[in-house]
Amino acid sequence: MADSKPGKSNALQREVTVTPELQAITGAGPLTRASVTSKVWDYIKKHDLQAKDDKRQIEPDAMLGKVIGTERISMFKMTAAISKHIK
């Protein structure tokens, strides 16, 4: 017998609800956690929000600042900040 359960998905593929502030960046759902992260990165790249001197640093604009704060933030800490807007 196999131990895996059919239809069971991992956390990145589970649909989530996002706050209105995050929805302004990602668009309307339903969204998976993975697609939320991807859409945030699309936004960052489209609006050129990576620091010129260190691409691992994000310099949020007003809209992204409502989600992750207005200060420069490491891309590693950004994920934790975004998770506060995901249910």
Describe the structure.
With 87 residues, the chain is mainly alpha-helical. The protein is 43% helix and 9% strand. It contains 4 helices and 4 strands, in the order E-H-E-H-E-H-E-H. It has helices spanning 20-26, 33-46, 62-68, 75-83, and strands at 15-16, 31-32, 57-58, 73-74. The longest helix has 14 residues, at 33-46. The N and C termini lie far apart (34 Å).
Using brief descriptors, characterize the structure shown:
87 residues, mainly alpha, two-stranded antiparallel sheet, 4 strands
Determine Rg (CA atoms, Å): 15 Å
| DSSP, total strands | 4
**Overall outline:** globular
Uncertain residue ranges: none
Describe the strand arrangement of the main beta sheet, using strand numbers.
1-2
User: Helix content range of the residues, please?
Assistant: 40-55%
Strand content: 5-15%
The main sheet comes to: 2 strands, antiparallel
What would the average pLDDT be, to the nearest integer? 89
Map the helices and strands:
Elements: E1 15-16, H1 20-26, E2 31-32, H2 33-46, E3 57-58, H3 62-68, E4 73-74, H4 75-83
Antiparallel strand pairs: 1-2, 3-4
In short:
By secondary structure, the protein is mainly alpha-helical. The chain is built from four helices and four strands, in the order βαβαβαβα.
